[in-house]
Amino acid sequence: MQDLRVGSGPTPKIGDTVVVDWDGYTIGYYGRIFEARNKTKGGSFEGGDKDFFKFRVGSQEVIPAFEEAITGIALGGIRRIIVPPELGYPDYDYDKKGPRPTTFSGQRALSFVLRNQGLIDKTLLFDIELLKIIPN
């Protein structure tokens, strides 16, 4: 875990809802990106944050590594995590726990790596930016 940018705001607590933007890469498969931060998302940020990824801390809606990464990150911070398969998607299925790629091509790239029975390394890399904390 590495902080690419240290935030200066509060940190989320269990039960808070967080709004994040994230990048996802398949490390073992040519570093293919399957989700990109800062891509165009419909609507303005105020009142229109439904296009960003949102989850409740402690709810187990997301993979363990993602949950762990958001703990202790300050508002405005960006954190990079390397995710070994055992802390990644259960049963190699992104429909069971988030975060889920928002584009078809991203879903296809991630699915290819996760479901591949061969020797492809299923280690993933995420950059997570904490945009907003909604208190419980």
Automatic annotation (TrEMBL):
* Organism of provenance: Solanum tuberosum
Question: What Enzyme Commission number(s) does the record list for this chain?
Answer: 5.2.1.8
- Keyword Signal present in the record's keywords: the answer is no
Alphabetical keyword list: Isomerase, Rotamase
Chemical reaction(s) catalysed: [protein]-peptidylproline (omega=180) = [protein]-peptidylproline (omega=0)
For molecular function, the Gene Ontology terms on record are: peptidyl-prolyl cis-trans isomerase activity
Return the protein name: peptidylprolyl isomerase
- Which EC class, in a word? isomerase
- Can you give the residue ranges of the PPIase FKBP-type domain? 15-134
Q: Which domain of life is it from?
A: Eukaryota
Q: Which InterPro entries match?
A: FKBP19-like (IPR044208), PPIase_dom_sf (IPR046357), PPIase_FKBP_dom (IPR001179)
